[in-house]
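Q: I have two molecules that I believe assemble together. Could you output structure tokens for the complex as a whole instead of separate predictions?
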Amino acid sequence: MAGETLFDKVWRMHVVLTREDGQALLWIDRHFVHEGSHHAFAKLRARGAGVARPDLSFAVADHYVPTRDRGAAIGDAAIGRMVGQLSDNARAHGVRLFGLGDPAQGIVHVVGPEQGLTLPGLSIVCGDSHTSTHGAFGALAFGIGASDVAHVLMTQTLWQKRPLRMRIWVDGAWGPGVSAKDLALCVIATIGADGAQGFAVEFAGAAIVGLSMEGRMTLCNMAIEAGAKCAMVAPDDVTLAYLAGRDFAPKGDALARAAADWSALASDADAVFDREHRMAAADIAPVVTWGTSPEDALPITASVPDPAREADAGRAAHVADALDYMGLAAGQRLSDIRVDRVFIGSCTNGRIEDLRAAASVLAGRRAVVPGLVSPGSSRVKAQAEREGLDAVFRAAGLEWAESGCSMCVAMNGDQAGPGERCASTTNRNFKGRQGPGSRTHLMSPAMAAAAAVAGFLVDVRALPAVR
Amino acid sequence: MEAFTRLDAVAVPLPYASIDTDQLIPARFMSRPRAAGYGDLLLHDLRSTPGFLLDDPGYAGARIVVARRNFGCGSSREAAVYALVDAGIRCVIAPSFGDIFAANACNNGLLPARVSEAAAEVLLARLLGPDRRLQVDLEHATIGEMGFEIAPVARLKLLRGWEDIDLTLSHRAAIAAFAKGDAARRPWASATETSATGAST
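A: Yes, here they are, computed for all two components at once.
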């Protein structure tokens, strides 16, 4: 009998029971809710139900929070109501709230790991598709909709069908100026925006082992953009070092016991995956998107594709539609695309390592377009300020703001205008994602910083040296 | 939840791949309470696109949408399903669906029917002609003469109009027993805030 994959092991630990039709009832270890949970709490009220395990539920204000003037009352009544509703629901149900004004507030997928709430071997859900982020610790983590959020609140369980298993093996060492974001976009471009649909993905290989936790989180975060059910990396010494001393992480004897259990969380040598992909880190160049799907990604050295040269009719229609929306011409060099603003932040690339990467490009340089930097959490913000990164961003002419989802989802008022082109470290270049009519180019923090300096999409490796 | 058995209705072709949930309902509208209805927000920002047929009088009263692959990818927002359902849509036919969208659809009585890419192209082309009705039969998993795919579990849930929670609550004892055993098996999995010295706070 073949061995088990990492996914199989974590899944098995959480199965309460399996129905005849194969649906498994899974125990949920951590449930994060944000402002969007108001639909789910309304369902609880309609049923007269309570929260089954408030001790395993955590509320984080991120999607709607203002990133400026935190001390003042929220000007927009609808936004104020969304933030207030989360606080009210958390208080009413005895759920720990990381709200506005909490020094640990931030984006839910940054806060969970940072607090040590995210641990190897846990099952973690949240009403947000980028919950896949937490899989970087070897957790089974995935996004769910409001009905399922209500189900978890009421029962601390969820019915699920077991997905297939995919391994993406990445060999070798990373080239200069290349990051986990470039790999993520490269993977999505290779397998497609639905290439991992129905699969639990494991990232493995020397290049993955060589990534920091921040890099692993970026990679697992973006797996949903390939349609993955979830993404995982086996826990190792890098994981343990990250967790050491975090508020909610086990300590002392409890940690020793946990670490012993976690050491078994790796795919067995004879484990069988339903699909395997293999890539070499050395082949990956800095990547940018040109279209309206994350699969529309190419190395910065390439040119905008031509719909007339697409063999598939559906693909040709998509390319033509995307170029029209993005205001680009077929065959145009990517490095000839002028940008209007930059955004650095989000659950994809708002962690301290991301800010360091952007700041290292901006140090001693000036941005020629406006830009906003929103740290992934208030703790990341404090850390960055201790390191003097805020001074680097400000000196370069970028705005240093508070933490939230901000321009990644444009729900709090931070947005790009119609027709504006934004070089962004976020996860989705969908039409209107950063505001009605906005045009988004996804890239790494270093590439976004380089675009700010050049005013064009540019290869960060080719930026002239600071004098 | 309203059960889904058969549907004979006008179908509107939306020949786009990866119609993401940000298109189905733009984020800026999501602070609206559900009771106020989401139907007018469906595909809000695409409706003014030339050639976009959702508001075409020739497809008035449509209860079925046909699209290209990866329908409902992106954000987990269930409001995308609310917008479709509130606009009268009961079935989306496409070659593939975002996982979370498909789960949300089945939790709201909306049928995500999978067909091959070739079959989707046939339907998209046919719906541009005079015959704009489709007959969807969930019991037999057919669209007219054509078959479609849906996970058996999702099919039964839609046919019966079941909500997961009712079944789950019947397993209360099993859940409690699991939680007790699990706490012993994985003591480290509890979420306890501790100081640096290891003492609980």
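A: One point stands out. Confidence is low (pLDDT under 50) at residues 197-201 of chain B.
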